Amino acid sequence: MAQTRGPVVLAAASLQESLNAAADVWAAKGHPRPVLSFAASSALARQVVQGAPADLFFSADEEWMDFVAKAPGHAGGWLAPATRAPLLTNRLALIAPAGTLLRLTIAPRFPLAAALGANGRLAMGQVNSVPAGKYGRAALESLQVWPSVQARVAGADSVRAAMALVARGEAPLGIVYVTDAAADRKVRVVGLFPAASHPAIVYPVARLALSHHADAEGFRRFLISPEGKALFRHYGFGTS
């Protein structure tokens, strides 16, 4: 009997537009459309090791994929052998509400605290768990800016939640991926972080050991294929 529901994909929040487009292309090829669940990679990784029924995990950093790979509780590990692949890369951007005229050159000791104003908060993913928040903190530390703003961070549960704070005008500035900023007309990029200021941003994808969906491996292979990579590049990602 043919399966009518596609494989379940747990994916980083920053992949919403691109992965939905990939799922549409896959469905147009005659497959059941994958079921996509988006959240912070940290939250999704914890779901995986709690035994959540899913087929693929698509993380915004290697650390949370490592967490899943090394977590106890499932004989043979939580990842299907030889299915983990680094797929995408990204850049970090400083954003402001769309109507803001501010532009900053991001360099060592740049005046971020002053740009926030007297009472403004800096919207970021949670800096100890959400990948975009961890990358952002690393960048601010390497640029010697973190001490001046760490008490003013508005930590969000995902990079998209951080962007929403800026889009609504609740925070004058935020740190997100450039692909996020491109997806919301209510924000604009006011500066790009030097790639060398933080660890490389890498998105790995893997099939999960508990997966039994007939299409799971096929969809994973589609994502890492030249066709899949071209689709992600259309949305602003780099590809490995």
From TrEMBL:
Subunit structure: The complex is composed of two ATP-binding proteins (ModC), two transmembrane proteins (ModB) and a solute-binding protein (ModA).
Keywords for the protein's UniProt record, in alphabetical order: Metal-binding, Molybdenum, Signal
Organism name: Novosphingobium umbonatum
GO cellular component: outer membrane-bounded periplasmic space
UniProt superkingdom: Bacteria
Family: Belongs to the bacterial solute-binding protein ModA family.
Lineage start: Bacteria, Pseudomonadati, Pseudomonadota, Alphaproteobacteria, Sphingomonadales
GO-annotated molecular function: metal ion binding; molybdate ion binding; tungstate binding
Example GO biological process: molybdate ion transport
Protein name from the UniProt record: Molybdate ABC transporter substrate-binding protein
Binding site residues for molybdate: S14, S41, A132, V159, Y177
InterPro entries: ModA, ModA/WtpA
Signal peptide: none
